[in-house]
Amino acid sequence: MLYAILTSTMAARIDGNGRENSVAPQHCVWYGECGSSSVLPDKKLNCYYTGPPKALPPEGQPLLRELCPGYDYGNRSVCCDVDQLQTLKGSLQLPLQFLSRCPACFFNLMNLFCELTCGPSQSDFLNVTRVNSSSVAELQYYIGPAFANAMYNACRDVQAPSSNVPALSLLCGKDAKDCNATIWIQFMFSIDNGQTPFPIIPIFSDTAISGFSPMNNETVSCSDILEDGSGPCSCQDCTLTCGPTPVPPPLPPPWKIFGWDAMIVIMWIFYTCFLLLFVGALVCAWCYRRTLVSEYGPIQDTHFLLFVCSVNFSCCERLGERFEHALRVLFTWWGSLCVRRPLLVIAGSVLLVALSSGGLAYMQITTDPVELWSSPSSQARQEKDYFDHHFGPFFRTAQLIITTSLNSTIYSPYPAGADIPFGPVLDKDLLHQVLDLQLSIEGLEASHEGQTVTLKDVCLAPLSPYNNNCTILSVLNYFQNSHKVLDHRVGDEFYTYADFHDHFLYCVSAPASLNDTTKLHDPCLGTFGGPVFPWLALGGYDETNYNNATALVITFPLNNFLKDSEERGRALAWEQEFISFMKNYSHPNMTIAFSAERSVEDEIERESDSDITTVLISYAIMFVYISLALGHIHSLRRLLVDSKVSLGVAGILIVLGSVSSSLGIFSYAGVPLTLIVIEVIPFLVLAVGVDNIFIIVQTYQRDERSPHEEIHQQIGRILGDIAPSLFLSSFSETVAFFLGALSDMPAVRTFSLFAGLAVFIDFLLQISCFVSLLGLDAKRQEGNRLDIVCCVKLPEGQETKTDGFLFRFFKNIFAPFILQEWTRPVIVAVFVAMLSFSVAVIDKVEIGLDQKLSMPDDSYVLQYFKNLSEFLHTGAPLYFVVEEGVNYSSVEGQNLVCGGVGCNNDSLVQQVYYASLISNYSTVAYTPSSWLDDYFDWVKPQSTCCRYYNNTGQFCNASVVNPSCVPCRPMTPSGKHRPEGEDFMHFLPMFLSDNPNINCGKGGHAAYASAVDLSANGTAVGASYFMTYHTILRESPDFIQGLKMARTLAANISTAIQQPVFAYSVFYVFYEQYLTVAYDTALNLSVSVFSILLVSTVLLGFELWSACMVVVTISMILINMFGVMWLWNISLNAVSLVNLTMSCGISVEFCSHIVRAFSISVKGNRVERAQDALAHMGSSVFSGITLTKFGGILILALSKSQIFQVFYFRMYLSIVLLGAAHGLVFLPVLLSYVGQYFLGRWQSYSFLG
């Protein structure tokens, strides 16, 4: 948007009568102003004058020194008067504001215009070719190419900080990449730019033409120091002052051995070595047994007795025996008491559960994703809170991504030029239709608490109250959201000279322009007072060819009201109306993907509601199975007597009671729930609780009551035998979960707290309330009373007691098969192979959570996510926040941050600029917008931006014409320097309140009003931010990398400027967890496993080796879970970490009972003891946890929720299958090889007892 000066000279010119008049060399071609331009009536023309230069009046001398400081003509006469100098000053305001940040650039530019306007030798290089009356109407300007190129080279890198584009994009009439010296000068002197009152025709030549010598004054490079002391331009504005272009470090090469992935090779070598050693050990053992002693030979009772009697137990073994004995006695007494006093125990249990569950009245459910995924003490959360406190919360958005099936079009510029393709979404008819849609959305009315809510009530209006128009980031804002402007055309009946194509091409290169340079002369600036950057409003283009766009992006930013529920409710109401409108909107030419800020939460809530049926069916299947499978039917006649439906239902109610008690107790404490807790904990507690129920019931069913033993004594004895095993598993899980609550991840911490308490309460209820109910049920069964209808009694009959089918299968078929001598090595080889594979791929499990997985299959948001990834070219806004402490009033403090002349090479703005040069590595897309650099340009005394009323001291906007408005700073050497001290803070509030206008495009209200946090009394700058954008980030790894790189850059800046600086973007609070999720997972699972080792060691009577068997098997299950995650494309995140923590607990159920049964078995050797443990405990574990869960899990595969399918169905199924395989197949085989060989204290105690 240029200005051009009104001047000319010549060696031969035409007067008004067509006669050629010669002008003597070293003379003028004009002097003074007379007449108005026919092109621009408000512009003056210069008076035709061929005489010698005239002395400038004294009042014009300061103005000449201000405008042409490098051309002090001294007492020499010039070819301009004071009026011409005033016109020159007004015409150069915009280039002054955008180019003066590079002194050499502006010096050369002023050289061009000062020689044109006032040069005393005008006739050497100016040729007037047309005169109207007494005014110059056209002239030729002879310019040396060396001068033109030097001027262009000094200016081509200068940036416009507020709009993140090169300044020449605003001043050249084309995108900066298409501009050169010739095009720029031709544009400045063309009447088509809307500023030049008459044609000035530049002629470029190195030699004299027709007696005219080209103006070829000396120029300065942007890296030079000027005579007035101005320093070289900054690196941001002059690549010559930069050091070497930053080069991103090379990516670390993949770790390979012999061209293969190193982990795979290492695990192959490990597995091969293991097989060799294992087979060798088996061969050696076989030879040893054949020559010396056979482990499988019978042990004579006399030898056994002699051995037992000769054992000398260690201190730990004696302590363990006493501890085990104490547990037996305690649980035996307790079980007998519960059976003898069932009503008291049941009533007490119900009362305690009711009291605990009463806390559900205070239950709070956390649905805020920030609270769910980000710890209040985390770095990202603290930075978010800091940003929200100082600058306000990040705005909400409603967004459309529009595509079409129409074809691309070709535009042919007039009068000449290459054809320009335009993408299908830039068809004018389609743009009209999109504008209709946009205007309809603007007119939406929602209702909130009886009040009407419109877009204007909730939208972001940066210039309010001066301009209340809503911010709408749309290409239609290039046309002021007007059908009339979109249809604006200049031409005749035969040709179109300019239309919306030309305006669009100009606006995408100069979005902040207030007047395009086409014949249309329409503004590009949005109606809300700010620019619409093309990378935010268009998608699907290549490089910067925005005309090839295949998608339109329309964004409605809304104010966010985190602390104001009333205002937030109004925004939510409007968003709901927007979503409803878009769901019902259709157009044959448009495909629209849309989303609002509330969309994700709404869809997750809808997903949860839709999955309730699936979850209920899943639990119903498990409940029915438990109720039916607990009974051991001896004959069809006794079906209703031997069934245990009522006992099964009671067991399920106990599980649910333990869950509700845990939720209630923590609700009393004010700990909020999460959806993960509600969805996962019932599954976990049901798995643990049902397993214990089956062990208790089936042990009782297989037990024979001794003569003279009463039922309470029998159940007490049974509980004394099995309760230590139940206590071992439950307490191990409880401790593991509570230690897992040390995690910083809120979802994991909350789950661990609720799960640990629920499991322990479930154990307490099972050994009390359930035992009492078992006693009552046993009495009912012995009395031949029907289940459920216990008042009905069958006639007495003799029935033979038999073992259950599963027990017989495990005892007679399964256990002997897997423990055969040839089967065991195969099992070990297979499971070690699985382990080796899982270790090899554990580092290949992807970290993150694909946001598409959180949506239902039929969600409209899925298409939005797809289009977002496919079409958008720019990522989220990125803010570099400088905390309080920088003294912006001092030059030293300014140099730490700014990016202009004199600023440090490692300043904040410069470092972010360097990062933007390697955006593919740094993920920083653009140079940052810098309020400080724009403020320096705004406050310069040469500019008309900073003025105040000399009678009131109030700010005077540049558009105001009032003689009482005077410049803020004097035209003195000190006044031309940056403001310091009181001056800095005095004028800064004026800058932040100034709206951009055609006379001053540097006003900071629109761009920076929220970027600077002034102190309460306005005497200092507190926190401030410098905004840029991330590159497009599509998948979780991209977001994680973006966060990493931004934090690295912020840390480097903090080190360089010795002030705290942090990077902030709206997605950081969600993705920060992934920076440490691998470490958190390793720590969480390691702590859980170690706690299980300690608890198991103590509760197994200090049997460290047996505890190690439990831990080894659990560790294998966990490692194999990672192998399954890699195979099944399950990423590592908070949800999967919760499931892994849960799998650690469930794995205890699969392993601890088998190991303890092995430890107390009195069989003669390892194989027999393993077989005995598997037969007695394996069937209960299999029927209790494996079959129960298997049926329920399969139903989850039918869920519409992708997150259910991936993180619940797949992971739950894997947990159950891997747990069953390791606990019921691998662990017995492992015990048969390396379980305790000698008969220990439990065997001795049991045998001698």
TrEMBL record:
One of its GO terms (molecular function) is lipid transporter activity. Keywords: Cholesterol metabolism, Disulfide bond, Glycoprotein, Lipid metabolism, Lipid transport, Membrane, Signal, Steroid metabolism, Sterol metabolism, Transmembrane, Transmembrane helix, Transport. The keyword Iron does not apply. Residues 611-776 form the SSD domain. One of its GO terms (biological process) is intestinal cholesterol absorption. GO terms for cellular component: endomembrane system; plasma membrane. It catalyses: cholesterol(in) = cholesterol(out). It is a multi-pass membrane protein. The chain crosses the membrane at residues 262-288, 343-365, 616-633, 645-669, 675-697, 718-739, 751-776, 1049-1071, 1083-1102, 1109-1128, 1173-1199, 1211-1234. It is found in: Endomembrane system. NCBIfam families: 2A060601. Belongs to the patched family. This is SSD domain-containing protein. It comes from Gouania willdenowi (Blunt-snouted clingfish).
